[in-house]
Amino acid sequence: xxxxxxxxxxxxxxxxxxxxxxxxxxxxxxxxxxxxxxxxxxxxxxxxxxxxxxxxxxxxxxxxxxxxxxxxxxxxxxxxxxxxxxxxxxxx
Length: 92
Fold this sequence. Notes:
It is a single chain. The chain is mainly alpha-helical. The protein has one domain (2-79). The protein is 34% helix and 0% strand. The longest helix has 16 residues, at 32-47. The radius of gyration is 15 Å and the shape is globular. The chain starts with a helix and ends in a 32-residue tail after the last helix. The model is unreliable at 1-5 (pLDDT under 50).
């Protein structure tokens, strides 16, 4: 059982909405902007000390301007209605 609990050995994966659809076998159209948003988010999380990027080259390009993203501070999350666009494993 211990082996199953540690299946990722502390590793995870960051994917965009379109990449998740692709992983679930659904049709997806991933753009450079989608990849740029994913890379920008991953780079920010590393800057903030929340994760360690294993293959830094994969997250360098493309990226997007922070002006194209909205970052909500945790203390303000109750002021927003956060609606997921995708549920992992759910077929459309």
